[in-house]
Amino acid sequence: MWSTFFLTDEDGRTVVPGTSTGAGGVAPGGPAQGAGGLAGLMSGRSTFGGNKRRRTTSGGHAMSEAQEGKIKLAFFVAIVGVVLTVLGVGTEFWAELSPPKHFYNNQTCLTTHYGLWKGCTKTLWVADIDPERESCGPAELPGESNCTYFKFFTTGENAVMFQKKTEKNLNVATAMLALFSLFLMVMGAICIAMALSKEILFFLKPASVCFILSGVLVLLSLLVFHQSVLALLASDHTVPLHHELSWSVSCLGCAGAVLIVGGILFLLLALPCSPWQKCLPHKDSSKK
To answer: Considering only the top CATH level, what class is 65-94+165-272?
Structure first.
């Protein structure tokens, strides 16, 4: 009596790998079908075909190479916003305060520029200033500079600039908003790294929330800082001052907009199907 062994392929069909008949021949569905069945079983694993990956994420959605490229492009946009935020937060050119250039004497004048952490008083030569400019400055001109860190976060003292006192609560609130926005950027970057390494599209949703909130907080910190500048100017009217927001604020404004755009891009990529791809077939069918 001949013992027969059976294999089952991925379609549920019975495969006889190599049984011999009574006549000594090979039974139908023998070695050829067995090899085909093994090939079918091998092809059922994760393979790479064409331009799309067959690897399936734990959420049940496959990430193609095109999706991965779009995620990396959106991540690059978000990284630009992060770099601009770090540049703006770390520099002290948020605001410039300048009295009239002939307020003290006819040869030198003083100007002050400050940010979240420290302020700098700079002595400029009047001859270097544009004749059409009435106030001292800008702070980019060469001169002797003296910088000191604020004591908002250590002893809680207000800073005094041109006999005017800062409003420490507003300054501290601005710094806390900026730092919390940086924390959200780090969390968003971790989510994107997990999405790319593990190929889990679910991480795009929390990343989009983190980047959008960080952009909103950056813009909100600019509004609070502007209120602190107005409170500083209103604290004393002895010295007339000209104030203007400097390039660090411009960096943060651009950073907030870029971060919000990056978060929206991640949100669109996290959708199961893009809105325009869903609408285009409908338009084509309506034309027919």
So the answer is: mainly alpha
